[in-house]
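In the current project phase, we have settled on a layout for protein records. A sample record is reproduced below.
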Amino acid sequence: MTVEREKLTYELFGTAVRELAQQVADDGFEPDIILSIARGGLFVAGGLGYALDVKNLHVVNVEFYTGVGETLDLPVMLPPVPNVVDLGRRRVLVADDVADTGKTLKLVHDFCAQHVAEVRSAVIYEKPRSEVKCQYVWRRTDRWIDFPWSVRPPVVRRGHGVGDA
């Protein structure tokens, strides 16, 4: 029995990011910073940065998924951690590819909460079980998602410990 999956192509990804940006613009939210959750959020943040004319992009590295359906007990923020001085009292848009359990987004939201004026999230996909309900979502699904950047195995396989993402 094959499990039905959500499949995102690079072409459809371009549409998704553009439509996410339009949701943000239509809502009147003008982020000062886009904070991407690496790795999948890097692609989303770059597209949103261009579409929303935001050049101030930051990255936070979070390790949670270790394989298909395999996670650590809790997500871990990896160095370098964003400097809270850089976030100081700004409007932050957190970008990621998927809000699955929502634990990664919750970690980043909690990190930002005491340091920024406002924090909102934009994701391509949100799953019903997500602890964080994102303000901007392109599609909702309960399926496993094949992203174009992660559907094929790496060209080079590296270590499998925390921080080797």
About this structure: The first helix runs from residue 10 to 27. The beta strands are 5-7, 33-38, 57-67, 70-78, 91-99, 118-126, 136-140, 144-146. The chain has one domain: 5-146. The helical segments are 10-27, 40-51, 84-87, 103-113.
